[in-house]
Amino acid sequence: MQHTLDKFMKIITTLLHDESDHPVAQFVPSQELFDTIDLSLQKEGIPEEEFDQVLTDLVLKSPRTATNAFFNQLFGGRNDKAVLGDLLAVMLNNSMYTYKAAGPQIGVEKVVLREVCRLIGWGDKADGTFAPGGSMTNYMAMVMARDAYDATIRYKGGRDNMIVYTSKESHYSIPKNAAFSGIGRDNVRYVPTNALGQIDAAALEQMIQNDITSGGHPTMVNLTAGTTVLGAFDAIRPISEICQAHDIWLHVDGAYCGSVLFSDRYKHLIDGIELVDSFSVNAHKMIGTPLSCSIIVAKNKKHLHDSFSNDASYLYQTDHDEFNLGKTSLQCGRRNDALKFWTLWKSVGTNGLAKIVDHQFDLGETARDYIRAHKDYTLYSFEDSISICFNYRNIPARALCTALYEQEELLVGYGSFGTDEFVRFVTINAQNSHQDILDFFAKLERFVAHHHELSVLEVQSS
Fold it and tell me: For domain 84-343, which architecture applies?
């Protein structure tokens, strides 16, 4: 094992040195992948030296999500304390379903979840669990909503016309989860949004009334804290009133920006969060832990137990259910995703987490200020968002982002809202500085100036 750890350190040291000179990895077209890197598997193993070379080649050609040139997804950066926790979790290899298998690591998860519930404003009845991604936490919320509507469904299956409501700007997992949970894709209602991408409460109320009149059974409303394109926050309080009036489960998908929970400056963006039935947040996004670190919490832990508990005498052999976390988890075998969040939180404190969150909004403001000050840009974003949406010189966003990627300059994506398509530049890497944001725009402008084909697209677009 020590030999392997030495090998690991050698490869990672090589990667870190190469990242400093080349923040974007070598572009490997998908159609050339298997000819470029030896990914083949064979009956016999290969010599150690050849193995080292293949592994190093694979690492160096993989997308670099931790550098100051990566603005493509809703995660990024590399926090050293969180990485330490993740490496320790790999070495310990505890499975988090029983106290017998995980011991003190169960306490790590319970402390994190308890503190998240406390920050929300919930009491001792609240609890949560970890899951492998925001899509899965949204699914767990939908299953709890389904079972809260009718406790017999988990035994006899669904019969009623259950309906889920979500905004047009919500995460793509919602219709998938409706299919998985038996509610059905056709029973997902997409509520219109305002100009900022926030759900329209009046339209939601009307849709609920129409469905009730038609014999439908409104079961769940999904709100979003940080929509995937514009980074908008749905207003919780007015929707909570609607849900309470009709006895509908209210979930807030905070996978992207729910970590404003930790910030006194920005917690107002989820005002009323204590009123919801469930809330999910990804620490691997705004908090910057390694993938994945997704949390789902419920105001009343009975719903977690009712929906996900199943007895297994071969598994639950010791200790109280409170310490056998498989009783409230969708999974059985489950890696320790809590430890990397705990090591970070323990090292910097809640105030340190707030600084991480606040810094990303400050970087967003730096980007918006730059765009506003330069006439070649069109800004589509608004205040209090870390999704900075813009176009440059009317060049189609899709073509610009693709060219930057293939030429190994910057990794940034594009999105759309209404009839507009634009570059979506996210300031979620808290290791970035304000200068890194300015350098992004400088590099983009130099790139366009040196690529005639993009200037042609600009003329055609105009």
Answer: 3-Layer(aba) Sandwich (3.40)
